[in-house]
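User: two proteins, same treatment. go.

Assistant:
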Amino acid sequence: MRWRNFWRSSDLMFLSTALNIVKRLLDKRSRSVLDMGCGKGRPMKFLNREHRFYTVGLDIYKPYLVKAKKDGTHDDYVLCDIRYAPVKEKSFDVILDIEVIEHLDKTDGAKLLRNIERLARRQIIISTHVHKCEQGVCDNNPYQKHKCLWGLGELLSFGYTVKGVGFKGMFGKDGIAYRTPLIFRRYYMFYGFLREY
């Protein structure tokens, strides 16, 4: 990959902020992670570089799961709709839902939150946009479309502790980080913004 393309990748900007926080929050005693809506597996490749966890990636879009498997991002892979995940109760230490819940409508998202509580033994980590971040179909994947936005109050009402990353309008194709001159984008890669709510 050419450096110019490397620094332009908004995925990498996301990895440098939200995933660094997720990595710090991961329960260090945990041994297994269920990655709900794993996509191409990039987040898990970053989070489990030391191969500390047994990981299973679930996704509904077969081409993404094929890519994740080719790249060896998880130990096992399951093609399924995460709303009906074929997983036994309390079978994983950690459940990850990274940038997935906004792809479901509000009713299905609420059901997903209730369902993942049954699956986790130790910890649930959810990463989602709390500000408007429109996204349509990407990579010919109809499931990539954003369907709803979750507010801080809604997440708190489910009993989650909420931590923020960055500020409104920082990421995405119209975000400040994307429009910043190339030379300065490198600083976003290493200095994520953290705001606690």
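Protein 2:
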Amino acid sequence: MVGIEEQFATDMNDRYLVREVQKKQELDEILDVIWAANHTPYEPFIQLFFPVLGFTSAHRKAALLESKERFWKQHTADTSSHWLYALDTVTGNIVGCAQWVISMTNPFAKGVPKLEAPWWPEALNWMAVHPAHRLCGIGSLLMKVGIKMADDLDLECWLEGSSMGKPMYEKFGFQSLLKIGFDTEIPGATDEWRRYAHEMTPAAVFAMWRPKRGMWRLESGQEVGLPWSLGSQSGMNGASQN
């Protein structure tokens, strides 16, 4: 494993410092950032991740507390999970976050696992920046640290990015392979289903991939093969971030 603390000492700007989560309190503060980031502007699909079962502040508080417990449980149960956060050294507040999942072996060697979760499968990957600290380079700082971790381990990377995040990911050597839309049409859909589909269907996302060390051409000048053309052995390890 790479020396993460050493990386952080060289991957900071004048105000923001990147660290890795060690305590639950840190991840709790990260969840506060994720909630704020996805409500400014409001992202309808956030109800899929953090269902608020009511319309009062008490219902919202209960949902926030549940999400903090759930994310901590998922994180501590998954040794491949690395939550990074950007700390504002002026205020002492956490202002951005990214979860990188680093797999040194093929996580799907035995096939795709059965998904059992109350609202969403484990091993979610996130990136979020508090609305008050956007356009300050925090997203790029978090990407820089994660990419260095992957490059030090000679891993390829993948993520699912929004239209807003796509240009930043491209700056770090990712390219879009597929645009993924969400088809919510089902036979005999109920009024309730149509309502939820209207209110919570997310915008299309981009499946993006970065080859090892961001090298899209081999030393011979030949273009690197895409994931589906490299064979099963190429998918044995990697780093993912969403």
